[in-house]
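sorry for the late reply, my laptop died twice this morning and i had to redo everyting from scratch. anyway the thing you sent over, i finally got around to it. pasting the sequence first so we're on the same page, its 213 residues, then the predicted structure underneath. double check i copied it right bc i was rushing
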Amino acid sequence: MPQDIVQIRLEIDVPHDKWLFKFNEKYPELNFYILSKFLIEKNAGITLFQIRGRSVKQFISDLKEQLTKNSFQILFEGNDLVIMNIRVVDPWILNTLIKTELLILYPILVKEGKIRIEAITNRSKVDDFLTELEKKGIKASIGSIGYGFKPTLLTQRQNEILNIAYKNGYFDIPRMVSLTEFANNLNISKSALSETLRRIFKRLSDNYLKSTN
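ok and here's the structure:
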């Protein structure tokens, strides 16, 4: 196996002029998770956030005061959880990821003004990524790095759905969200979500049984 394949964790400082830094600093008790990011045009992108904590309601109120209505969309709102899309102008980290072709693992935690990302990739892509951030004047540091390959049990999408299901209480007894509600929140059909969950459970069950036999 090529020796330049690395598993790496990076910590990237969020620029202080970005809304994410300001809200991350104002609400240190909240956990901000980036579930996905994609470009909609050259200088604009959409980020899917999951934000959890006791002050979610106050955070939403502040967000509505500081951002325009067409810049965000709330997909799910609970007492301590919100899932929302936010339109981002100058998606600096997404553009850098695309330029350097660095694929990262989701979800991504944003805490204490830092974006914590993990990737399994060529070391050269990591170096290119860090160089591009440095050109933008953005600080980044390597939290940990190791050589080798970490096989993923679930696909990225399956991992996202499993995390959202867990955090939304889908596995609680009694359930905090029904399959229909969960599917609506993800904007997919109930049957498609049911099939995805069955595939997740199958992979997890196979892995568990193999590890115990």
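Residues 36 and 48 are 5 Å apart (CA to CA).
thats about all i looked at so far, will dig more tmrw
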